[in-house]
């Protein structure tokens, strides 16, 4: 892939926003040709970027944190790349990469398999990753892939841009076309195709920036959360005449937080910082922005050390027994013992003990 960086690209590229689509004139090849700049006849060359997205360097750390370095979306983060006037030089993504984007299966997310984890990166930064119908359908397809592939042990939901997710797409709501995805049998999957859908494998939210409204509901629907140190979490719904009910957070908040903290988050409708979210127990880790995805992958790697069935039934037991007292007997204990029987009688349980005795890593089969 060819990367073009030049001051003239900034002057000639037409871009409505810092993330907008710009059209680069064919004469760009002449303008950036060293021979032309020295007054000699320029070398004939193919225009490098007839269609390009201009990406400011200050956004490069966020793209890298979303795991996009090396994919053509982020090629440099040098703070000393400056043109006259002290402005940052842009990264101009080549036409070839734009063509690959057009040909890819998804238009609003980037899906990548990394070390046994499926990384689903929300990629509508120009819309603050607001959940459109199409974006939710694509997340649903990616989660189908996560569930179907036995080699994938965990899912990670990450983001490009400064906002993890700003909630629902208000434009589609105003047009009356917005809806949540549904299963083939008609079951509602909820906001982002995830808040009402139970995923057997652990889901990790890798939050860079702001998680607002429905974006925070998606975070709370995940099993583990790592956030950047500048992340913000906020339910503004009461100040808009609404409740944070669409994604189930009114149910989850009292389970994931103390009642007083849940009420503070939901009733005061004020944003809280990443450190506050960590102190409250809403999230698991806070790291610098460019380490968010690395930390999520590290968590996914540790999950993969466990047997698939053990992870699956541990997660189910935690959620299905939530609210039951530990006093025996009750229905909660019945659920626990039923799932324990599945794991104890599995081939992986035998492999685990055998591998321990033989002092070798276990070879899990998922059965």
Give your account of this protein's structure.
Belongs to the enoyl-CoA hydratase/isomerase family. Keywords: Lipid metabolism, Lyase. This is Enoyl-CoA hydratase. One of its GO terms (biological process) is fatty acid beta-oxidation. One of its GO terms (molecular function) is lyase activity. With 367 residues, this protein is an alpha/beta fold. The chain folds into 3 domains: 7-102, no CATH class; 107-304, 2-enoyl-CoA Hydratase, Chain A, domain 1; 308-357. The protein contains 15 helices and 13 strands. The protein has helices at residues 7-12, 28-32, 34-37, 60-65, 95-103, 133-148, 170-175, 214-221, 249-256, 259-267, 274-280, 292-304, 308-320, 331-344, 347-357, and strands at residues 21-23, 51-55, 91-92, 109-114, 117-122, 154-159, 163-165, 203-207, 210-212, 224-228, 232-234, 272-273, 285-287. A 6-stranded mixed sheet has the order 4-5-6-8-10-13, sandwiched between helices. Helix 8 (214-221) packs across helix 9 (249-256), helix 9 runs antiparallel to helix 10 (259-267) and helix 13 (308-320) packs antiparallel against helix 14. Residues 1-103 have low confidence and may be disordered.
């Amino acid at each position: 892939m060819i990367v073009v960086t030049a001051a003239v690209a900034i002057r000639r590229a037409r871009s409505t926003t810092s993330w907008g689509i710009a059209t680069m004139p064919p004469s760009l090849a002449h303008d950036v040709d060293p021979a032309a700049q020295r007054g000699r006849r320029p070398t004939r060359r193919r225009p490098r970027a007839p269609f390009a997205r201009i990406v400011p360097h200050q956004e490069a750390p966020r793209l890298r944190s979303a795991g996009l370095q090396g994919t053509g979306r982020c090629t440099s983060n040098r703070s000393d790349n400056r043109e006259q006037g002290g402005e940052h030089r842009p990264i101009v993504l080549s036409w070839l990469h734009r063509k690959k984007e057009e040909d890819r299966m998804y238009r609003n997310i980037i899906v990548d398999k990394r070390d046994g984890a499926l990384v689903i990166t929300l990629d509508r930064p120009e819309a603050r990753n607001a959940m459109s119908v199409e974006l939710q359908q694509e997340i649903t397809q990616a989660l189908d892939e996560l569930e179907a592939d036995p080699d994938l042990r965990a899912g990670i939901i990450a983001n490009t841009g400064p906002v993890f997710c700003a909630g629902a797409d208000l434009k589609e709501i105003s047009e009356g076309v917005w809806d949540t995805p549904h299963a083939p049998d008609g079951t509602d999957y909820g906001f982002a195709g995830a808040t009402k859908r139970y995923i057997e494998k652990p889901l990790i939210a890798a939050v860079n920036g702001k998680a607002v409204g429905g974006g925070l509901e998606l975070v709370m629907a995940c099993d583990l959360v790592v956030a950047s140190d500048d992340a913000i979490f906020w339910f503004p719904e009461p100040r808009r005449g609404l409740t944070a009910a669409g994604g189930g957070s009114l149910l989850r908040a009292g389970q994931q937080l103390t009642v007083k903290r849940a009420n503070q988050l939901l009733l005061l409708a004020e944003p809280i910082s990443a450190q506050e979210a960590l102190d409250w127990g809403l999230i698991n880790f806070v790291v610098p922005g460019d380490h968010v995805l690395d930390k999520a992958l590290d968590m996914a790697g540790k999950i993969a050390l466990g047997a698939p069935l053990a992870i699956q039934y541990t997660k189910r037991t935690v959620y299905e027994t939530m609210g039951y007292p530990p006093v025996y007997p009750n229905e909660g204990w019945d659920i626990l013992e039923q799932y324990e029987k599945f794991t104890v009688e599995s081939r992986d349980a035998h492999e685990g003990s055998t591998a321990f005795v033989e002092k070798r890593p276990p070879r899990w089969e998922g059965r």
